[in-house]
Amino acid sequence: ETGVTQTPRHLVMGMTNKKSLKCEQHLGHNAMYWYKQSAKKPLELMFVYSLEERVENNSVPSRFSPECPNSSHLFLHLHTLQPEDSALYLCASSPWTSGSSIQETQYFGPGTRLLVL
Amino acid sequence: GQQLNQSPQSMFIQEGEDVSMNCTSSSIFNTWLWYKQEPGEGPVLLIALYKAGELTSNGRLTAQFGITRKDSFLNISASIPSDVGIYFCAGHPDGANNLFFGTGTRLTVIP
């Protein structure tokens, strides 16, 4: 148990569906992240939120839409996905010290295994 | 983007043997992290390194932050079946905010 929970753990959706992934952290962190993990590829950073503001958007298609209503919750809204979007979606959190050159360690949730048909 | 070369890609070892894996980068890193991921789960942090030359242990695991700041290694002593999983290195390059990951080392321990 890392203190980061994700729901659902598994999701199957059609290309025309709309669904949302949820992440919640109980660690008192103020930064949250979405990663995509595909087979045989390094983890790909998708979005970073610090103090509920998006600070990073790594050229992710607009069919992925993140939302961070507060420092403990992060959502990833999915709409008209493609089969190649099937992957494990991981949420992580960390402390965030503004202006610091010392980067903080990230703690991961268990992931949502997504299959797009 | 930043690339981390992690080796070996996979290992098959007998229970009780020691394991060594490493990670190299083309540029200087400020932190090195080692994570383990088991099937159906997210990566779990094993060891974090913040200073060149730092050697840190966590039970049977030992990791070092290379002096050149461009590499790190992870050793597992006296492996047991529950060590099975994929081990990822990760790090923050100098001057970058993002965390970059290696492609992982898949470890299989044969009882």
Tell me briefly what this model is.
The complex is a heterodimer of chains A (117) and B (111). With 117 residues, chain A is mainly β.
Please describe what this structure looks like.
The complex is a heterodimer of chains A (117) and B (111). By secondary structure, chain A is mainly beta. In chain A, 0% of the residues lie in helices and 55% in strands. In chain A, the strands form 2 sheets. In chain A, strands 2, 4, 5, 6, 9, 10 and 11 form a 7-stranded mixed β-sheet that branches. A 4-stranded antiparallel β-sheet of chain A has the order 1-3-8-7, with no helix packed on it. With 111 residues, chain B is an all-beta fold. Chain B contains no helices and 11 strands. In chain B, strands 2, 4, 5, 9, 10 and 11 form a 6-stranded mixed β-sheet that branches. In chain B, a hairpin with a 6-residue loop joins strand 4 and strand 5 (44-49). Chain B is globular and about 45 Å long.
The chain-level mean pLDDT of chain A equals 88
Structural class of chain A: mainly beta
Q: If you average the pLDDT of chain B, what whole number results?
A: 92
Strand content of chain A: over 45%
**Main β-sheet description of chain A:** 7 strands, mixed
> What's the shape of chain B?
globular
Radius of gyration of chain A: 14 Å
Radius of gyration of chain B, in angstroms, nearest whole number:
13 Å
Specify the number of helices of chain A.
Answer: 0
Fold blueprint:
The complex is a heterodimer of chains A (117) and B (111).
Chain A (H helix, E strand, L loop, with lengths): L3 E4 L2 E4 L4 E8 L5 E7 L6 E7 L2 E5 L6 E7 L2 E7 L7 E8 L12 E2 L3 E5 L1
Parallel strand pairs in A: 2-11
Antiparallel strand pairs in A: 1-3, 3-8, 4-5, 4-9, 5-6, 7-8, 9-10, 9-11
Chain B lengths: L3 E4 L2 E5 L4 E7 L3 E9 L6 E6 L5 E4 L2 E5 L5 E6 L8 E9 L6 E2 L3 E6 L1
Parallel strand pairs in B: 2-11
Antiparallel strand pairs in B: 1-3, 3-8, 4-5, 4-9, 6-7, 7-8, 9-10, 9-11
